[in-house]
Amino acid sequence: MMRVYWLVLPRSLIVGLLLTVVSLQQCPVWGHQGDLRLVDNGYEGLVVAISEDLPHQHCNQILHGIKNVLREFSQQLLIATGGRASLRSVTVSLPKSWRTDTLTCSLTGPLTIISSPVTQHIRVAHAHPVYGARPWLQQSQGCGRPGDFIQLGDEMLRVTSNDSYAEAAKQLLKQWVKFRWGVFDEYGYKNDVLYPATYRDPGSGVSRNNDCRRRGSEMPFCDASDHIPEAPTKHNAMCRGRSVWNIIEQSQDFRNYRNPPINSTAALVPTLKFVQPGSPRVVLVVEDTAVMNLQRRWEFVRKAVRRVVVYDMPDDAYIGVVVFNSVARTTASLAKMDQISDVRQRIGSSMPRNPSHIPERHKCLLCGLQEALRALATDEDQSEGATLVFLTTGSGTTSQEDMDEMVKLAVEKKVQVEVILYPLTEHRGSASLTHGLEELVAATHGDVFTVIDEGVGNDSKMSMMVSLMDALLAAVRRSSSPSGAPVLVHSQSYPGGIASVAEGTFELDDSLGPNARFSVYYYDLNHVGNTIQLTTPSGRIMSSINTQEEDGDANVIFMNLPRAERGLWKYEVENRADSHQGLHIQVTAQESGVKQMSLRVWTSNSRGTINGSDPSAAVIVYAEVMDGSLPVLNARVVATIRRLGTNATGSNYQPHHIELLDNGLGDPDLTSGDGIYSRYIPYYAQLHGQPGYYELSVTADHNHGLAVTPVINIHSKNTAIGINGEELCCGSTVKYESLTAASPFQRSEIYGVLEYISQVNKDIVPPNRILDLRASVNISNFEVTLRWTAPGDDNDWGRVNFYEACLASTWTEAKAYAGAMVTGMPPPVIFGTEQTISFYVDRYDQNIYVAIRGVDEAGNKGGVSNIVTVWIPHPPTTTPVPTIIWTTDHPNRLMEPRGQEITQPIRVSGFSVEDMAIIVGAVTGFLIIIIMIVIFCFFHVARRKRNGYKRDQEKVEANNQLKKTNSSLIIDKNETQESVDSIIKEDKLQSKNEAPLSPMPSWSASKLLQEHEQRFSVAGGHLEEASEALAKYQNMQDSFPDVTLINTSQAYPASQTPSTTHSDPPAYQLSYSAYPYSYQPSFSHEDLPPYTPQGLSSQSSQASTIAVSQASEGPYPHEVAFSGELMNYSHPPQPVPVYIPGITDIDNIGQSILPQGKKVAPPVAPKPPQVTRNLVETKRRNVTQV
Quick one: pLDDT at residue 1126? Predict the structure, then answer.
């Protein structure tokens, strides 16, 4: 498989590059089976890798078990395929730490030491927390796509009985069928919501086990005659009901009748070849032509080579350097790295100081390859395989004959070729990856890394140098063991001319070794200030004054961190770089070799292309997050895709972030809880159909502490038991008995470059398939409920326009959407949200098949969902049940609304659209008429009540109208606890336009006086004192406020109109104190503030109404009516005889009613006019309402 890597460090963009760390010794290549081939009915190139975690004391038992199990497996494979395939040769990779002596590890063949990475097909490791020691398959891709790897526990191989070997081979064959040909299990799982353990047989209607395997047969699957497409199995859902054998026949092994059956019934006995990883061997093959003279290209090459050799190559690794132009020569022979001698400094400085002037068109790539192979031949260990890293601008004018010779030599010597395209010059608005080395890279399973030319005039930007260093580090990482190769933990660029201090954080976790290195790369040494400060996770501040080191040959200042604390670190670096340059900060560490946190990225298209005109070839990105051999769940995994080059304005393209999910919905993620996160690349929605080259990278972290890992418990059995007693796991999700929080971690990997071809100008991408459709029946009311997860508009992105749901009598009809269409589906919601629908069906005691799919705005229809079966028992005859009549009409769902509701229970209608419209219209019109009648009656009754209330109010208000008059003070001794109203009325008041007295029946003044004289004796009581008090009152300088009540509105003095008042006094009736009163005058008129009651008339007042109270003994203290003070009395008030004073007595009463020693706030009113005695008419009126 060839993957193209394009390393670019854009301005102010974080670039995190952490290459894959795996649990085995060498970096494996999963997801492709290029070396595994079926040749003449025999498989060749199968690799079985033994985990480094297994103790070497079990070597003989494990190797003996591998030999016997694979021999039995070959025989069973021949029978299962009808004599068309068996096993011919197997390579067994031993751990590097195992000692191969005759006592503990006796081999049946020679042992070969290899220096290149191996491809793992079958892994032997410790027991899995769920699957145990039984073989299991990691399968990430869809139907017809190969699996990732098979793993089995070493305990299954360390048994010594033939029956155990036969059982292990049988279980291995079941996983092999899925691994090689991309099929799935044909049985259900206990308590699985999508793939249940039982289902109702479509023929008999009787519940049966969900199992398609034939008892007594060596076949681990069913052929076309035994296959049941209606069964709710994972295989039927993923492969749309096709049989397993149908898919196997269409595979590359048997397509077009390849490898026909053989006559012999005896299978091939596989031969075993034993290999063991050795020290990595790397040769750097560097182009030395005139193109390197431009800008600072050659200087950056020298610095990058020195950085990798001196600081990044692990100990015990071998490295050499070859430069080539028209000829090739070795500048540094292959040598072993160590920390004692000067070998690192010598090889790191072996590059020529200046490049040659030989034109690029004269370069000889074949010469460089031949010279590198000669350098490898000088190795005394004579290891097999190596890694050649070509640093070149491309193939140039290399002929096809030379290219074929290069491929032949590389394959014969079993070397892996890594290519770094440096520099790649692109024009604005375009990008190009044509380099002519694709064939060589693909033949040796290498990779291509690309460094963009970011030159500015005659200068080069520092980001080019850092990108080149990262590319070399990536190549070295692929060739070395995880425990020795460095890991790039953190990488971030800080442009100059913006901030004076570069601040950031990085995290060190338990999977890293105790030592780390903090490095600052610069273009010019003066760009780095004096301040470099680190803060440990415990808060301790580390200054770099005594710990930093400088290497001018690599343009780096670094700090070694021995025994670095685990956790989050902070740093501050003074940035003095120019605006067109900057600083770059990196943190590297080595794997601890004990606990390894890894991130691995791959795609569904190994060729690295995206065909925009073929929606069926949509590319899926996968990321596996592992803690050693255990999956990490609930991690935050984000893929970033960014188009390379510049747009029409010369600016960089904005990146698009894709959150990868481990949800087990089936499309694209197959199984939840397996640690594999996946998502479609939205090349139409976000790439806008524009061809070009796009860089893909993935980051993963512990999701703010939410990430967890399973706990290994080899004594637990968390699996379902099948019909033959075997343990079955897992269907839609992997369930663990116990989980523990994952250690804080952060990983990032750059996958490489994807080429987007075939520009499209319209939306042709359909929604993804719904593969989690579930159905349930409520037996109490016979209601059917469907549940599913909303698909996207373009695969798993966005929201579909509407749904199409089909109810059919047969599985075939449901698959073709030929049954009754369900109307009134709920409005779609955003991808990943669960939706439901409920309805009634009138077909009983028979299977009803239900399918659903989404349709986008462009009319693209998603694939058929998993088809579910509904069985509704016939209801009792005494219970009426709403029924429906099915319709095959397909309504225009483009007119259905799009909303945000998640659920919308509905009833499937049995009428046509026109009938339903008439019924709904009639019912709606009737309801509108009823509502209008109710509203009319309500307002009519309310109006009548309001009018009646108004008339009653008018009657009450008529009795409350008060008019001014020249009156005497009326004092009723028998009404001391009631309000006493003295009304003063002037004759000239009638001339004003005021409201007349109410026509309601009332007592006249003469009648009131007559009634009073009948009740009281005029000659008795203290009438003379009252007359004197009234005379004093009449001589007061200020009149009392007019409290005349007219039509329930209060009157204002002329000077206190509503426009000049700013306070709301209490209600009028609350201004009276309880009777009797005590009033002590001790103020002058100037001390009194104006009285501003709210709501009174603005007309001036000439008279006032007052209340007079009497103490129990002595002279009668009086208080004005508007006083708000309440006094307590120890004696009840005495009766006061009525007295009609003369006008001259008012002056005397005025002195006695003023308060003593207190200040009140009576209103300011105009002075009352002088009246004569003969105008006074004694009147008395008892006011009952104010």
Answer: 38
Q: Are 1075 and 1136 in contact (CB under 8 A)?
A: no
Could you give the CA distance from residue 661 to residue 634 in angstroms, rounded to a whole number?
9
CA 223, 228, 231, 235 torsion-angle sign:
positive
CA 42 to chain CA centroid, nearest Å: 48
Q: What is the CATH number of domain 485-595?
A: 2.60.120.380
User: Domain spans of the chain?
Assistant: 37-274, 281-480, 485-595, 603-707+742-757, 774-910, 963-1186
Q: What is the pLDDT of residue 190?
A: 86
Taking residues 301-323, what's their average pLDDT? 92
Q: How far apart are CA 529 and CA 545, in angstroms?
A: 12
Separation between Cα atoms, residue 415 and residue 804, nearest integer Å: 54
Distance of alpha carbon 495 from alpha carbon 493, whole angstroms:
6
Q: Each residue of 135-157: pLDDT tens digit?
A: 999 999 999 999 999 999 999 99
User: For residue 319, what are the β-bridge partners?
Assistant: 282, 335
In this structure, what DSSP letter does residue 672 have?
B
Mean pLDDT on 1028-1039 = 47
Main-chain phi, psi angles of 941, to 5 degrees: -65, -40
**Does 2.60.40.1940 match the CATH number of domain 603-707+742-757?**
yes
Mean pLDDT across 1008-1032: 51
Q: How many CB atoms lie within 10 A of CB 892?
A: 8
Measured on CA atoms in the order 25, 26, 32, 37, is the torsion positive or negative? Answer: negative
Helix axes 365-377, 400-412, angle to 10 degrees: 20
CA angle at 974 for the pair 969 and 980, rounded to the nearest 5°: 40
Instruction: Name the phi and psi angles at 167, rounded to 5.
Output: -65, -40
* CATH fold label, 281-480: Rossmann fold (3.40.50)
What is the pLDDT at residue 850?
95
Which of 286-300, 550-564, 800-814, 1008-1022 has the weakest average pLDDT?
A: 1008-1022
Q: Which residues contact 871 (CB under 8 A, 6 or more apart)?
A: 200, 205, 777, 845, 846, 847, 848
On the question of a common fold for 603-707+742-757 and 774-910, the answer reads yes
Phi/psi for 1019 (5° steps) reads -85, -10
What DSSP line would sit under 176-194, residue for residue? HHHHHH----SB--TT-SS
d(CA 401, CA 419): 20
Query: Would you say domain 774-910 falls under CATH 2.10.109.10?
Result: no
More confident residue, 381 or 999: 381
How high does pLDDT run on average in the chain?
76
Q: How many helices (H) and strands (E) does the chain have?
A: 16, 50
Q: What is the predicted pLDDT for the residue at 336?
A: 92
HEC letters along 439-475: HHHHHCCCEEEEEECCEECCEECHHHHHHHHHHHHHH
1117-1128 confidence digits (pLDDT tens): 443 333 333 344
Separation CA 789–CA 835 (nearest Å): 6
Q: What is the pLDDT of residue 1019?
A: 44
Q: Per the structure block, which two tokens stand in for 802?
A: 């509407």
Does 762 have pLDDT greater than 70?
Answer: yes
pLDDT: which is higher, 220 or 594: 220
Look at residue 989 and tell me whether its pLDDT is greater than 50. no
Top-confidence range, 402-406, 551-555, 1155-1159: 402-406
- Read off the pTM: 0.69
Q: What is the spatial distance between Cα 253 and Cα 537, in angstroms, rounded to a whole number?
A: 56
Question: Quick one: DSSP state of residue 1088?
Answer: P
Q: How far is CA 686 from the centre of its chain?
A: 18
| CA dihedral sign, ordered 565, 566, 570, 575 | positive
* Full DSSP string of 65-112: HHHHHHHHHHHHHHHHTTSS-EE-EEEEEPPTT----TTT---SS-EE
